């Protein structure tokens, strides 16, 4: 062994060894590095075939070894072998590239270039090398060709760890689950901003509305609990919840909070403020940014979705004045705010929203809007590179997007528009029930199937196979995997907490509040809970209200009918006192009790000193005392 080390040291000292370690041009694969005499430098020969040097040309330390042979750069054979076959001098990496290790055909092996290959042939940076190799598979390059051959999908293994990551278990209450998604610090922030807004912008004076009192945590939780219960008991107007009619009256609302106080909290609800002299931010959602950022963080960390996820848009109804509302005739609301969602599609967590993005009309750029939305949601939810299967509709799907997802170790399935760039153009006309397909050497499949109309699906995980009814498996899996966003929207619309409002950010807040409740319900099911959504919301509303009851006198409208007493209702000791008129407080006018009974709003300056009611000076005074 010492002899071999001295030979290697002898070779390293020559400059020719460093030159031989550089990348060898394909035309010079047969070049070999040999050694001559001990004092001569090694010579590089470019002849196609040269006899191997004899023992006389070797160094003295190496000449006496048995079966001695010259050492070359591409020599991987053992010292026990001695053959003139040139295959011994070929590098093993090139032998593996020329072999057929997988089940793909020879043409596919020649066309397909692996997405990630860390084997470098030079001192080129790894990032530049990977980018160069990946670009050879992009749509529009010679290696990306649609042909009618069976697809060989290159699926990525699922490497995430789905499940609930918060400190919860099957015995957790709905309120404990909700607090993980709607945290206490967010609740405290909203209370602080609401009190600040009410102090800087007091409501106008009103005869029946009391002055603002600071909002406490218990009161705000009770307010949210009433909003949850309102979703379970929908009524035309929220004033009906405080109605005195026996067919409409609900004692829960009148006992917990007065209607005027509920109005105060709704009109002063605020989430952020600007300092003195601070300009309006460029962010169009700055009035809700603390809420959005907090929920986006908790949604991502509380639960990790299962393998199948879906990306689609929802429409939150709003018809007020706002610069970034959209019109979508396919949605029931038609007008409103467009929201992109990434939701879990399968398992008990189906409908859980891991990430969302509100559209504000600022998506212009070089990258198509659909591709930008998918990549941003996948990046923010930390789902890239973990083998997730993402399902999208034809507004997002394109060969370029699916190629980018393949590079990031993500499977993709989605309906497609045949006029998209780099889509196959040679599909044959189909009759009902027939299927045609095309595939690429990179493992991408495009299936076209005629049902009631022609449906085109792009996939990186399917083959061109059908079930017993002749329906492609790609379409069957798409129908199952795409339901995540629809399930979440259905759960939110069943018991909504939103009410009509002209202030856009307050209404959007309650859309986000509903989203947090739906996610809490999905976590409850993932933990093994058996409650229905109605039972879950009912329990959550009770826990939010707790034992809170409004302690002050009700802030109801006071009229002359509620003032004073009738003469026969006076205490016995005052019943014999004389009834006489006296002026009311200086500068004040009070309502006449008799006129109010007739439905006439009339104010007077006189009152009965014994009964304590306002009465007009002439006829009303006598009529009041003759009433009994």
Q: Taking all residues together, what is the mean pLDDT? A: 78
Largest sheet: 9 strands, mixed
Helix content: 25-40%
Count, helices: 21
User: What is the radius of gyration computed over CA atoms, rounded to a whole number of angstroms?
Assistant: 40 Å
The count of β-strands is: 17
Report the span from N to C terminus.
128 Å
> Structural class of the helix and strand makeup?
alpha+beta
How would you name the oligomeric state of the polypeptide chains in this document? single chain
Description:
- The chain is of the alpha+beta class.
- Among the domains are: 2-95, no CATH class; 394-473, no CATH class; 560-625, no CATH class.
- 33% of the residues lie in helices and 12% in strands.
- The chain has 21 helices and 17 strands.
- It has helices spanning 2-12, 15-20, 60-63, 92-98, 106-111, 126-135, 174-181, 184-200, 217-232, 251-256, 259-268, 289-302, 369-380, 399-407, 473-481, 484-494, 504-526, 533-545, 572-575, 593-597, 619-625, and strands spanning 32-34, 43-45, 163-164, 303-304, 308-317, 326-327, 335-344, 353-358, 389-392, 411-415, 435-439, 445-450, 454-459, 581-583, 590-591, 603-604, 606-608.
- The strands form 5 sheets. Strands 5, 6, 7, 8, 9, 10, 11, 12 and 13 form a 9-stranded mixed sheet that branches. A two-stranded antiparallel ribbon has the order 1-2. A two-stranded antiparallel ribbon has the order 3-4.
- A hairpin with a 7-residue loop joins strand 6 and strand 7 (335-344).
- The longest helix is centred in the C-terminal third of the chain and has 23 residues, at 504-526.
- The chain is elongated, with a radius of gyration of 40 Å.
- It starts with a helix and ends with a helix.
- Residues 15-120 and 552-565 have low confidence and may be disordered.
